[in-house]
Write a structure and sequence with these properties.
Nuclear Transport Factor 2, Chain: A; 513 residues; disordered C terminus; 5 domains; 19% helix
Amino acid sequence: MFAGGGDIFDDGVFGGHRALFLRNDHGLELGGGGIATPAFAAVPGTALSTQLKRRFFADLDLAPDLGARIGSLTWYRGVATCIGLCALTVLMAPGFETPIYGTVAPALTGAEWDAARAQAITPLAQGATTGYRVAATRLVSPLTDTPERPMIEGTAKLAFGEALVSVLQRTGVGKADATQVGQLVSSAMPLGEIQSTLLDYQLGRRPEKSQPRPLEKLELRAAFDKRMEITRVGASLNLKVIPIAIDHTPLRVQGAVGSSLYRSARAAGAPAKAVESYIRTLATRVPVARLGSDCKFDIIVKQARAATGEVQLGNLLYAGVSGCDDKVQMMPWESNGKIEWFDGAGKGNKTGMMAMPTNGRFSSAFGMRRHPILGYTRMHRGVDIAAPWGAPVYAATDGVVQFAGRSSGYGNFIKLDHGGAFGTGYGHLSRIVVRSGQSVRKGQVIGAVGNTGLSTGPHLHYELYKNGVAVNPRSVAFSSLRQLTGSDLGEFRSKLNQLLSVPVGRGAEKDED
């Protein structure tokens, strides 16, 4: 039994013993069953310890009311807190004698004030013009007709491939005027040749609102060397073509190769596409990596300069190297309908023989053999290439068709003359797509594999001639070299001397990358 009429409860294990506590009017007292502890004793981490901490900090007030309980310990603690905060404020202040400077924005004037006032919301008493909208009263009478501007000017863009008439109609030009403009422009040049350009137009006053405005004036840059003006004279439109003077002096760029040919040429002002073409062309005659840093590159590019300031850069006209052992002079020249690069002596690039005139496998070799149809041994003047019926047959290299037609045991037969004492023959074709006297290029389709003539199956009979005598195509590897002669060589050298007389200088205002 416990005195005081309190409640007995078990608070768990304390120090290895179970402790019983008695709750009474004075708090908690040890009831027995464990080690005696004073009142309010608590084990750290237990529920009782947590309750005591909450009660202690709940009564702690760091900023008490200084108007109440004056002279008590709580009041003095509040005074000390106030003094400490004031001292901390004084210590953190910049000083009573040090002023704190501030800036004031200058007053707006002129156009800045007008722009700010138009965007600001100000009181109506100060003449505000924003946010004030009211319905019209009976004193406001509606206009019978809305006035229009007498002239409208604008600009439209004509993209490459767009129809001129459609663009004009989208800008507000009437169908009749747009059609008439299209007819006038097409009479001067095809509409499809007009590049991307801007259209500056003027539209006049219309007689009725239901009618489109009449076109008064139209200006456009139809071509690099041509400008057009269309103006209204009475009820009709008149076209005036204004030519633009063009200077076709080529652009010539020179400089040292340095550590990088490409970077040096670009830094000197040569266009990127021209430098790439220059390097490819140069590589056909001399390894580019072998060029020393002291070598001088020489690039001439086609250039057109308009009197209005625009510049157009075209293809590469000359590729040269000087100042070192590897001296190169190369210029493109059209011969027999084909553009090739020739050096200063009129020599073209070497072209090799195509290894296989069709896709297939060798089924019969060159030499003596027993004929599969005739049954006796005789000379096989070429090689047989087994391929599917109808497979394309290509020209071995550039040449001229010497014969194309039926030739006894060869069936459909083509013979090409490649110059330099060489020629090729193609037999047993199912189809011939070239004619005698026609010039062909290396890799061009000239026929199709077949089974015509004395043949046991679809294949290509391929022959190679040297000085008119058939030789083994698989044992001969040769390359052809074009050489300009006669009048062609004279014209070539004259053109080369003209290019070499072009002064060195960038001459262009912008690059064409």
